Every structure is written in C-alpha cells, then in structure tokens.
Amino acid sequence: MISRARHLLAAALGGALLVLPALTGIANAAASAAAGTTASAAAKVQSISLAKTAADVKRVADYWKPEKFKHADSYSPATPGTAAAKPTSAGGAAGPAAPGATRTTAVAKRAAGQLTAPALPRKGAPTGATMGKVFFRFGDKEYWCSASSVAARNRSVVATAGHCAYDPRQAKAADYWIFVPNPGPNGEQPMGIYVASSISLHEDWVGRGDYDYDYAFVTVHRGFSWVSKNGQYVMQDIGRLQDNVGGLGLELNRKPGTYSAASFGYPAGAQPDGSRPYDGKSLKMCREGRTIWNTAPPLDLQKGVQLQACDFSAGTSGGPWVIGYDQERRIGSLSGVNSLTWDRNGDKRYDAVSSPYFDTVTGAVYQRAATQNTPAKIT
C-alpha cells in the first residue's frame, strides 16, 4: 500500500482543548501563545468525507452484509511494509536527532496530560468493548486493521493508524470503511457496525506518508445491527458508538521514558521467520512496558515512540496504546496507535512496536473529528 522504498525498515501492524489560566499578563501571554499553537496545528488537519448521508450509509452497509463477515479471515491485514530491521534508538532512550524534532512549543509541552477523560457506556453495556476491528477496501481488495473508540463531544470517534484509512501512494482514502467493536472470532458483530462519515488526518500523512503522522481519527455514523425480517436482513439503528461501548481518554505531549503503556490489537500476520503465533481472531495485549524515543529517517519518522517487548505482527495496525489501563473495567487513556513493528536484534522475530508521538497537532486532528456532525437517523 506504500511505495517499495518504504519497505526497507519496518512493517505495519496497522472535550475542550487544554487552556492555561489567564489570570495575569504573563498567563495571558502564555494563553495567547497556546492559542497560536492550536491554530497552527488546526491548519495542518485535513478531513475527507466518506459516507455523508443515510443513503451513503445504506450503500456501505449493504456491502457488509452478515455473509460478508463469514469470509473475514480471507481479508488482508493492512500494512505499509513487509521487512524488519533494527530501529535507530534500540540501544537506549535516545531523543530525536534535532532539537526541534518534537515540533512542539514550550507552551505545548507544559500542556502535557489528558485532553479528554475515558468514558463508560451509557446503556449498561459490558466494559472492554472500546476496541475492535476496522474493515475497508482499497480498489477491489478488502483489508482490516485494529482500532478503538475515543471519548468525544460527538460521541462518535474511532482512532486507528493513518495507513488504515488513507493510502498516500495512491492519494486515496479507503472505501466502505466500518468499525466493528469487540468482534467475535467467526465474524460476529455483537456491538453493531459503525460506518465512517469522515476521516481526519495530518496533511503530512496525506501528502507524503510521513510516519510521524501515521494516525487517523474517524467520525462514524450511528451504529446499526442486522436483523432478519421476512427472510431478509434489515438495518436496525442502535445509537451512537460511545453510548454503546464507551471511549478511551486521550493523552498528549507525554515524553517517552516518563510513562508506560499497554498495546492492544488483533495480530495475524507472519513473523519474519515465517511463523504465525496469532490468528487475528481475538484481542491481544502487550502488557504495560516502558516507552523510548524512536527515529527512522527513511520513513520520515523523527519523533516515534517505541514500546519494548512486544511481538505484534500485521493486523494490529491502529490498535491503541493505553495509559492507566484499568484491568477490571478495561478502559484507560489513548497515548498512541500501533504503526510500525521492529525486529531489533535480527533474530527474525518482532520484539517492539512503535507509534507516532501524540502531541498538540494530534489533538487538533482529534478535535476536527470530535466536532463533526452526522445525521440523527441512518435508517
């Protein structure tokens, strides 16, 4: 899906803004600087419309009839590469090569922390359903990735990898894009299906496939379930995503080395040695581990974050990195998404995964998705 030149180093797995108090002249200046940073970040966001109307939703839904999911195992886990190599930061917690590589101002750095808090479902649904799979098509081929629901003002936002929503080589967004929370091992959709309304991305992923921005926040329509009526499948509206499954919080500007995170996804692809320890049918977790900086200049990755001791393979692209994961309620805050996977020691087994650094610009992309409106009815 990405040009062959990018296959050299890695394989893909696939609320209000924070405002500083304005109580003094100094604080007012800081707030003005923060506003300028926010405005500059917002200017780099691109939104791409997909299914905008009820008729559009019906067209996508008809493509994903229940029998289609029976063949989900035959679809390809989306990946921008197939080779692995030792990342440049494998020796330790090195920072970006250049002082400005993190691309955040002093004000933005002080705004590190939670942008939006985790949210539990409203309707008494079981917790732990914020994570799932996205299915989509490029050309005439079906793909899938991992993804998660994120708490948002419109209660309708999904986070995933940029390469799970837009292919910069083709300059084309994915078609027939849907999110299925907590899918069953045989293609079941117990929490419904959510059709994408629009995709929000950073302009440098859209324009040149810069892996510093390999993330996407997707605004989805109200969900639906297929019900059998008079021998035919009929769409039944089940409400908004966050009301049904809850949403992860969102953390920004957290410096690698100062926090740990757990990574989640549905691994299915082969390891470099050809073995397949996972089948992609169930959610897996790389337990909470330390984070370090990671750079890979051939992929334009200047501010990646690496998570140690993780053997994820293709299929986990877009799966969430979670800070403060609550094992009992199965919820926490999003701090990254699976983007690239690494064989650090050359033993032909993946042993680390990396994410773009989630900073103020990431927050602007999320905010664009969180403020998009969708129709009140889809059926």
UniProtKB/TrEMBL annotation:
This is Trypsin-like serine protease. Residues 77-108 have a biased composition (Low complexity). PANTHER family: SERINE PROTEASE (PTHR15462). Keywords: Hydrolase, Signal. Its EC number is 3.4.21.-. Residues 1-29 form the signal peptide. InterPro entries: Glutamyl_endopeptidase (IPR050966), Peptidase_S1_PA (IPR009003), Peptidase_S1_PA_chymotrypsin (IPR043504).
